[in-house]
Specification:
Layout (H helix, E strand, L loop, with lengths): L8 E4 L17 E5 L8 E5 L5 H12 L3 E4 L6 H6 L7 E2 L7 E2 L19 E4 L3 E3 L16 E5 L2 E6 L14 E5 L11 H9 L3 E5 L8 H17 L7 E5 L2 H11 L6 E5 L11 H8 L3 H6 L1 H4 L6 H5 L4 E4 L13 H10 L4 E4 L10 H4 L2 H11 L9 H5 L10 E5 L5 H13 L4 E7 L19 H17 L2 E5 L7 E2 L9 E19 L18 E10 L5 E2 L6 E2 L9 E20 L14 E2 L5 H15 L9 E9 L6 E2 L3 H9 L14 E2 L2 H32 L4 E8 L25
Parallel strand pairs: 1-4, 11-12, 11-13, 13-14, 14-15, 15-16, 17-18, 18-19, 19-27, 23-29, 27-30
Antiparallel strand pairs: 2-3, 4-7, 5-6, 7-8, 9-10, 10-12, 20-26, 21-25, 21-28, 22-24, 22-25
Helix pairs in contact: 4-5, 14-15, 16-18, 17-18
Length: about 750
């Protein structure tokens, strides 16, 4: 045996010699010649008859142990014999050892595979196919017309869009499909492929055998990539489409080439070698023992190798059933989602309830998957207008609407009816807006509905998502009841804060030992009358003057270290009249503007990114309490910024100011509370720097941090901004279209 290929070699020859029966009752004709290799199954076999089901089982067992195969397929491809019997009723033995029926699992392959075969096939070196001289080459059967060709000894295919759908004067966008096997891709994937082709996107793949994502398979993938990109003018960033075991192949290649990937879509993809096929089985394909593969797993296991993809910003979409026992959701797609989001990556996971590793049409006719692939294989900015797009615009180009749920009181049947009307009128969908009645009509009162995101509210939201999903519509939701951002779940620690000040005047020289007054504020208070949340910022002293002018910042004395936890200041006051100012940050107490009657709450701290993430995470978590995935829910809207006039602040303001502006703001704080410095430029420059820092924190904390969190699911964020005071931050306009009331008087 070639020492460079440590995988044991199983040979099948048509020599016509009868052989002994093997332990699982195979028909005569299988001769086992045992050799002393260090492998769980080390044999050479002579096969004289067309493989029966039992033969297939033995071949599968041999293959599971990592044996490579060479020989005559005798009526079927060797790869088909290795993985399954092509007879629809024949038993298949999945590589994880669980029995199952052929064609009932996307992992085991389709029933009745129609792939044509080589007349003689040699499979060696871990699965590489070779054609003897003078033999007929493989004619692969594809679900749609395409080209079958060879790349580095591997069978590859490409299905091109029609000439009318091809994009001129730019590289051809493409979907990279895996696994390419004798029966894959198959007819049930035609629905997806047809939509890709209609969008001008090609479909391609290459058969790398049962590689389990090993380095040889990755090298063969690179050969296909170079063939298509360097020689055929294809795009450098395809969208990868991994079905089942194709996840191991495509994810491992993508992790080594993250900048060459536009996105990754998956249909119950295998992402965890421990889960399937297991290290004992997969190790043979890697030329390692199970123990060695375990030690090197971080290099070869998709769920352990996600950081390069997250760093490159590669978006991911999976559809994976929660009843999948072959490739369990928790150990594969759910694990990818959790880890990828922690890394800052963007992943959307759709979980069809009750579906396993099967051929349910919903896996292969998933409109969201198609939209994802098209968006990331062929970005909108690179597409050319076409008459077909004008006749049937994509969802992103269709009008939507605010969908007012007045007083939070809605009727489920009315929700269904209105969504059906939106579909009939060609809309993309709507954004749910739980909101109170601004101008009640006494003759037609609308009763108070349930609290926003409470059990009954979630039931209605869940129903709306289900119905929108059924109709192929997109939904959004406003991130509060009415506006601004906030709700009953916002605790004082995460609520909007301002900077507050109290003053006393003292004359020295004297020894001062006095509790400084707590600044007046509107924060929620506890039983002791003190705010539930506050933080001391500074205690400053400066000479008093009739015109409230401070000579210069050097005249300001920081006394913060001389005040104890009870607010008692101890200080030896110098001669003269002094102002002592206590600066505290606490909640503004401002609540939502016009919430539904049972849904009021505090506004969030718009300058604190952690508060923004807490707020949006709560909404996502509540929705995911009543359904396994977000599905038709695609957007979240923050509607309007209407906050009271105040001195904006947040806990980290001093540290952020120092980092962003390069100096300490504390000596200048009196300039925010009516004082000024003798040099007017000092006052104006500091006030400019203060407002610039507020702007930076609002953008970075509220908008950027909130958007980054939502994008990990991903949920798009929409901001409709209006202001009731001068806004120190950049704003953008948003157009509101006709709303649709959902409350029905007849429904009560």
């Amino acid at each position: 045996m070639n020492s460079t290929h440590p995988i044991p070699l199983l040979r099948m020859h048509c020599e016509g010699r009868p052989g002994p029966l093997v332990d699982d009752g195979l028909e005569a004709g299988l001769l086992i010649i045992r050799e002393p290799h260090n492998h769980p199954f080390d044999s050479r076999t002579c096969l004289t008859e067309k493989p029966a089901t039992a033969t297939v089982k033995t071949i599968q067992r041999i293959h599971q142990q990592g044996a490579a195969i060479t020989g005559c397929a005798l009526g079927m491809t060797v790869a088909a014999a290795v993985m399954l019997s092509t007879a629809p009723n024949a038993d298949a033995l999945p590589a994880n050892g669980n029995s199952g029926k052929t064609g009932r699992s996307g992992l085991e392959g389709p029933a009745g595979g129609s792939a044509k075969t080589w007349s003689t096939v040699n499979i060696t070196d871990g699965g590489r196919a070779e054609t003897p001289a003078g033999e007929q080459k493989l004619q692969k059967s594809l679900p749609l017309p395409g080209e079958v060709f060879e790349v580095e000894g591997r069978t590859a295919f490409v299905i091109l869009p029609s000439a009318v759908n091809l994009h001129r004067n730019r590289p051809t966008p493409w979907v990279w499909y895996a696994p390419t096997l004798p029966g894959l891709p198959e007819a049930r994937e035609s629905w997806m492929f047809e939509r890709f082709l209609a969008a001008g996107i090609a479909v391609a793949g290459v058969d790398v055998g049962e590689s389990y994502g090993n380095p040889q398979g990755r090298a063969d993938f690179t050969a296909l990539y170079r063939e298509l990109v360097e020689r055929r003018g294809f795009s450098r960033k395809p969208c990868l489409l991994a079905r089942s075991r194709g996840g191991l192949m495509l994810y491992n290649w993508a992790a080594e080439h993250p900048d060459a990937v536009g996105g990754i879509a998956g249909i119950y993809p295998v992402c965890n070698l421990r889960s399937w096929p297991g290290l004992n089985v997969a190790s043979g394909a890697y030329g390692l023992t199970a123990e060695q593969l375990g030690e090197q797993l971080a290099q070869h296991n998709p769920i352990d190798h996600l950081a390069p993809l997250a760093k490159a910003g590669v978006p991911i979409f999976h559809i994976h059933g929660d009843a999948d026992k072959t490739v369990p959701l928790d150990a594969n797609s759910a694990a990818v989602a959790s880890r990828y989001r922690e890394l800052g990556g963007s992943m959307r996971l759709r979980i069809p309830p009750g579906q396993g590793h099967n051929v349910w049409d919903g896996f292969f006719q998933c409109q969201e998957l198609v939209e994802f692939v098209i968006a990331h294989a062929s970005p909108a900015a690179e597409r050319e207008p076409s008459s077909a797009l004008f006749q049937n615009p994509p969802m992103a180009a269709r009008p939507g609407a605010f969908w007012d749920w007045m007083n939070g009181n809605v009727d489920l049947d009315e929700i269904t009816r209105e969504l059906e009307e939106m579909k009939a009128k060609g809309m993309s969908g709507a954004e749910i807006w739980d909101i109170g009645v601004i101008r009640p009509i006494p003759e037609e009162p609308i009763p108070a509905g349930p609290a926003f995101l409470g059990p009954e509210s979630l039931k209605a939201i869940n129903h709306a998502i289900d119905q929108a999903d059924r109709l192929g519509l997109h939904l959004g939701i406003v991130a509060s009841s009415s506006w601004n951002a906030g709700g009953s779940w916002i605790q004082p620690r995460d609520a909007m804060t301002g900077l507050y000040q109290s003053e006393i005047t003292v004359t020295g020289p004297t020894r001062l030992a006095q509790v400084l007054p707590f600044p007046a504020n509107h924060a929620p208070t506890g039983a002791d009358g003190m705010p539930l949340y506050y933080k001391e910022i500074a205690v400053l002293a400066f000479p008093q003057s009739p015109d409230k002018v401070i000579r210069d910042p050097a005249a300001v004395i920081n006394l913060s270290g001389k005040m104890n936890r009870d607010g008692r200041l101890t200080w030896d006051v110098p001669p003269g009249s002094w102002v002592i100012a206590r600066f505290v940050t606490s909640n503004t107490g401002q609540k939502l503007m016009v919430p539904s009657p049972n849904s009021n709450g505090l506004l969030i701290d718009h300058l604190d990114g952690n508060a923004a993430e807490t707020h949006f995470r709560y909404i996502i978590d509540q929705v995911l309490k009543v359904r396994p995935s977000l599905d038709a829910l695609r957007y979240m809207e923050v509607d309007s910024v209407e906050v009271d006039d105040q001195t904006d602040w947040t806990d980290s303001f001093v540290a952020e100011f120092r980092q962003r502006r390069g100096y300490d703001p504390v000596p200048y704080l009196p300039a925010l509370k009516g004082k000024s410095f003798a040099d007017p430029q000092i006052t104006s420059r500091f006030q400019h720097d203060y407002h610039q820092t507020v702007s930076d924190l609002w953008i970075d904390g509220h908008y950027r941090k909130g958007s980054e969190f939502l994008n990990t699911y991903p949920i798009s964020r929409v901001a409709a901004i209006s202001c009731n005071r001068a806004c120190p931050w950049p704003t953008s306009a948003s157009t509101t279209v006709t709303t649709h009331p959902t409350w029905s008087p007849a429904a009560g």
